[in-house]
Each structure stands twice: as structure tokens, then as C-alpha cells.
Design a protein that fits this description.
The protein is an all-alpha fold and 50 residues long. Helices cover 42% and strands 0% of the residues. It is elongated, with a radius of gyration of 26 Å. The termini are far apart. The relative contact order is 0.07.
Length: 50
């Protein structure tokens, strides 16, 4: 009896993980588009040498 329940719990755990991994994404990120770069470009030889 205990073996059957343990086996059932293990199979359910694995199938739920499989379903979560391979199900479609439900992410609800806002559609904000491309963001412009407003920083400074790093030039490797323009700074102080250590």
C-alpha cells in the first residue's frame, strides 16, 4: 500500500515538472519596445592605465 502511494506521488511529481517545463509561457511582460542607448561607449584605451 505504501509502495503504491509513493510510486504514485513520484510519478505525479515528475509529470507536473514535465508539464511546467514544456507548457507555453504565461509571462505577462509589458510591450514597451526597443529602448535607446543613453550611456557612454567604453573605449578600452581612453581611460587611466593601472
Amino acid at each position: 500500500m505504501i509502495v503504491n502511494r509513493t510510486l504514485k506521488d513520484i510519478i505525479q511529481y515528475v509529470t507536473e515538472a514535465f508539464a511546467r517545463i514544456f507548457s507555453p509561457n504565461n509571462d505577462e511582460y509589458p510591450a514597451i519596445g526597443l529602448q535607446p542607448f543613453e550611456g557612454e561607449i567604453h573605449l578600452p584605451h581612453s581611460g587611466t592605465d593601472w
